[in-house]
Structures are given as C-alpha cells and as structure tokens.
Fold this protein.
Amino acid sequence: MRKHSILAVLLAVILMGTLLTGCHGQVSMNSFEIPDAFDTSRTYEITFWAKNDTNKTQTAIYQQAIDDFHALYPNVTVNLRLYTNYGDIYNDVITNIATSTTPNVCITYPDHIATYMTGSEVVVPLDELIVDPKYGLGGSELAFDSPAADEVVPQFLEECRIGGTTYALPFMRSTEACYVNKTYVEKLGYTLPDVLTWDFIWEVSEAALAKADDGTYALNGQNVMIPFIYKSTDNMMIQMLRQLDADYSTDAGEILLFNDTTRALLREIAKHGESRAFSTFKISSYPGNFLNAGQCLFAIDSTAGATWMGTDAPLMDISPDKIVKFETAVLPVPQFDPANPKMISQGPSVCIFNKEDPQEVLASWLFTQYLLTDKMQTAYSETEGYIPVTTHAQNSAEYQEYLSLIGTDTDHYAVKIQASELLLDHIGDTFTTPVFNGSASLRDAAGQLIESAVKSVRRGTVIDDNYIDQLYRDTRQLYRLGQMNVSVGKTDLGPLPRTAVILLSALVTVWIGILVYLLIEKIRQKRQSSE
Amino acid sequence: MKKVLAMLLVLAMAVSMIACTQKGGDASKAEEVTGMTKAEYDAAAVDSEVEVVTYVQAKQGWWENEGVGMATFYTQSEDGAYFLYNMPCSKEDYDKMTEGTKIKVKGFKAEWSGEVEIIDAKYEILDGSYVAKAFDATSLLGTDELIKHQNEKVSFTGLTVEAANDAGAAFLYNWDGSGSQGNDLYFNVSVNGQTYSFTVESYLCGADTDVYKAVEGLKVGDTIDCEGFLYWYEGANPHITAVTVK
C-alpha cells in the first residue's frame, strides 16, 4: 500500500511537472543564431510594418528603399504595410504575437518592445548581429555600404537597449519644438529669448487673452485665441519633471510619478487651463491649425510635424482664407533652467521579430540595416524635422547641402530645417525615460494627469489637494500602475491562457484521482480488517 | 388548512408577479424621459454639462483603452443631431445599440476643430426607436447655413466626381494618397461649379463595406448621389456611408 501511495504521488508530480513545463511562457521560440552565410539560393518574403506621418513622400521613400534593396538582394521580397500611428502598430503586434504572426521588421518605440518581450525570444537581440564581421554594421559580406557601428549616434543606439540588451536600431530621431508666432509676441511688447522659460510662456499667454471693446481678442481681432497649445501632454509632464530633476520612475520600473512636484505642476497648469491661456491637442485640436490661423502664440509639437507649422507651411489643414501672416520662430521647449536645457528624444526605431528560419531573420536584419544607409537616412529625414541617426549620413555632402539650402523652396521649408537644426544643436541635451514593461502606460498616465486637470478646471472643478489625490488614485487604477510588475521584460498576464486552464483542470483531476484512490484503499483495508 | 395556505401563497405570488410586470411596462409611459432640446444644447457653453435623449444612427467603432471600452456614435433625435465621441461603453452594450436605439446621454459639450460633440458621457439605453431620414443638403453646400445641420444624416444629389490629385485619380487613400486599402478614402465632388472634399471614414465604413468598394470604383466624371453624416473638421467634412452612381 505504501509503495502504491508513493508511486501515485510520484506520477502526479511528474505529470504536473510536465504540464508546467509545457505551459511556461506564452510564446516560445528557439533563440536566433547567426547563420554562417546568407543563403542566396533561397527566396524570402518578409513583411515590414512601417509608420508614416500621413506623408506620401515618406510612403514613396519606403517603397523606393524596398525596390533598391530588392535590386541588391533579388531573393528577398519585402511587403510593406503602412500605419499612420504607433498605437495601431503596437496593438496589431500584440495581437499577432499570440498567433505567432508578427511581421519580420517593424517600426516601433522601445516602450513598446518592452511589452512585446512577453514571450521568450519574440524580439531578436541585436548585439551579436551588430558586431558580426560579415553581416554586422559595416560587415564584409553586405551588398551595400552600411554605416559602421560607431557611426550610429551612440546616444540614439543606447535608447534601443532594454535591460542591457539592444533590441532595436534607431531609424529617425526628433524632439519637440515650440513654434512661436513671433509677430504677436512682439506686438504684446515682449522680446523672445533664445530659450523660452515656463514663466515667460505663461506670462505672455495670459497677456494674449486681453479683449477689445467689441469682445474679440485685442491681439488678433478674432473670437478665438488659445495662446498656448501642447500636442503631447505626456511629453510635457515628462520634460517638466526632468527639468526639475524630479522623480518619474526608476530604471527598474518603480513608479514615482505621483509626487509633490507633479502636484505643484498640475496646479500651475490648471491655473492657465482655467483662464483658457492653455489647452491641449486632445481638448482643442492640432496646435498648428490654431497657430496658422493666428489663434495661438506658442504651439508645441514634434519637430517631425514642422511642415505643418507657420504661415507658409507646405501642409495645411485650414482653408487659405483662415491663414494669417506672421513670422515663425522655432525654439526649444520651455525650460525651468535655460542654461541647462533638457528635451525629450523621440522618433521611430526598428525591431526584428524572431522566426523559426534563421535565414529569414538574417534577411530581415539585412533589410533593417539597409534603412540606415545614407540614401534612406537623408531622404526620409528631409521629409520632416527629423535628423539622420548616423553621423555618416549627418555629415554626408548631400545632407549638408540640404541644410544649407534653408528657405530656398518648399523642399527646404525654413521652419522644417530650423526644427532639424534645433535637434542637431541639442543632441547632448536630450533624454529618454526608462523602458520597462508598463513604461508605455506610465507615459500615458503622465499625459492623462494634465488632460484631466485641465478638462476638470474648465468644467468648474477646483483643483486642490483633494482633487489631485483622487486624480492620482483614478489614474493609478486606470493604468494599473499600482499593480505594475516592475521587472523588465515581464507583463501582466491578462485572462488565463488555454494552457493554464488545461493545467488547472489536470491538477483537479489528479487530486480527485488521488482522493478516489485513497478512498478505495481505505474501504479495501476496512474490508480486510473486518474479514 | 395546508392546502388553503399553499393556494393563498401561490395566488399572492402570481398577483405580485403580474403587478411587477405591469409596473415595468407602465414606467416608460408614465415617466417620459426628456433631456435638453437641440436649441438648449446649441445654447449651452462648451465644457458645460449637457443631457440629451437621442437615437443611435450609426456606430463609428468600439475600442479598449486600458481595459475600458470606448465607442463613438452618430446620433440624432427629431430636432437635431449629436456626435458622441469616445463614450465609455461595454462591448455588450455596443453590440446591443443598433440603428434607431434610444439612449439618454449625459456628458460634457466639447468642440474639436469645429466639430461639436459630447465627451466623457454616460448613457442609458431606453425603450424606443427612431431612424432619421437623410436631409438633402445639396443646396447648402458652401453656404453658412450648412453648419446648422452639423452631425445630421444628410444626402447630396447630382454630384460630379472630380480628380482627387494632379494625376487624375478619382479617390485617394488618406487625404494625400499616402495610405493604402483600409485607410480613409478621400474623393472630390463638384456641384454648381464648386468642388468639395468627401470622406469615407474607415472606422465607420471599412474596406469590406459597399460604400468603400463603390468609392474605389468611382471614375472622374461619374454623376453620383451620396448619403452620410455631416461631420466637421476645420469645415464641412461629410462622412459618406452610401454612394449611388447614376
């Protein structure tokens, strides 16, 4: 009997162990190993999910790169799928991880990659690929002139490292700029400083609200005036906190956003939301639309949106009769310490998803690397206020000529090139926030605090400590920041997967089996003792 | 005695059940649910709280934000139309709400690039149904009168399809042709010598819908009738839901 009991327990343990092993990790794939040589006798079809800024020139550049790459590697066909926002790419990737139907190459943000890494080996680590002598950056077996590893701006490459491993290559970089209606600022009697301060921007914005006797705004003679509009309030909060050396999160993912500095900032921002001197994209609309209509003095948006900014902007959503003539200044985002400016570094990166066939992954890597060639880097960066991510492209004769032709025609729209130069001049002043599973939610939460406070105060709510306490609680709950798993590369599991259900069912079955067995044995023993 | 008691209990139960049923049935008649009139809504300031009783005319889409369901609706009552943007809504209720469904909505009036909408709203599904007839707004195109019909179900007749770009395309994926199938469709139409830009909003009418396919099949010079909702973005930006080529 004792022998049987031990055997039963052992069987149960083995069964459970097997099930547990089988269920561990939502998506599992063999780790990628670099093949000795790229097999050109085979054909490969890879998918590339890309984002464009609703800009047909960018679409054409992607397509040209694909065609050029195909000419170099006729055995590789790249299928392009276009998106117009990062959020949709992120959602589709998450959906496709579960079905192992991820694209091969994908434009992305490091915050998103941290979430993609839910299954093991889903995203290909690039460190070994980057330095591979044959197929790495500047490798000997490449069919094109690739930049060397040390020609990728180190700071931008560093932004693609998560937990000490490189999971992406930078593709383009931008920052935010404050596009200013200089004409109106001077009309109010102010002189624009080289670097804006928050105090300056609040003061001028309040002054711009003065009304004329007929009820219109004295500055523009119109019924609409929103002096200061911010496109991405998540960046606004993140940059304000960084400029003040205040907490946001730790590198390991500890959430520190809900602090007293944030509280003080929210009170200040809400004050100007209440007076209507300040608004946001989510509340009012694109800053550029108001700027170009003479209804805004300070429009903060990405440098990658520069072609929409200013009287002579090549791209415009408002009708020509609404455009107002003014001089546009392109300045860094406002600062608390103008002598020590700090601004966000943003822009797309490219990651590679792992596949069963290492040759297919190598084909993906070759294409990814091709996106860093001078031709691609200069062409794409010139479509907007982006900058190339390699010093090789930045210093190329073609790019330098492009910069020198500032203001000569639409392709060299002055505001766009000024926006690029702003970042080129301030690469050392840029920063990014720590990347961990949940960092994308934390970023959303940072923006939501501002959006909520401004909306509330516009609706008559008093923004006091009680309000902010409640806002903190609600925001933590909405973005699940109180339950955040702080380790890099993990995620909250969501509903039980099918395998877990099978495991739990098996456990119950095993326990029932054990109990039934013990019961039978007990009955048998009873019978034997009674006989 | 036991039998009598049992009978009494059964009777009491039956009576109470009937009473309950009748009360439920009468409630909607007795308590006429009302909200603001369209005129009161129009007069309300942006950011103020508004409450309207309206009817779903079309659904633009449902999505989840951090686990919270959100939905956008084109709605209309007998006296005017209301656009409900990103209203927290469960998928179950979203599926329940079909063309004509009566709802009471309480939220905040907002304006985004000229589009007046209700945001941060709560809703209640009510008994009742109303499907608006499309208002023929052809003669109002290009006039200041058109905005009075913002968000309404409208029709435009006898339009001529014009080229959407210099290459002579009849439509574009995205406003500048930067998109691909599945993105919004933009096409130009003219009437009385003026040209207007119409949109097939891909969340409202995706690539598998009749209207999307119809626009993909348009040729410059076609004469068409259109129906849709009078959305606003820096000016009239009708979201077209039906196209008939004449």
About this structure: Residues 2-30 of chain B form the longest helix (29 residues). The CA atoms of residues 81 and 142 of chain B lie 20 Å apart.
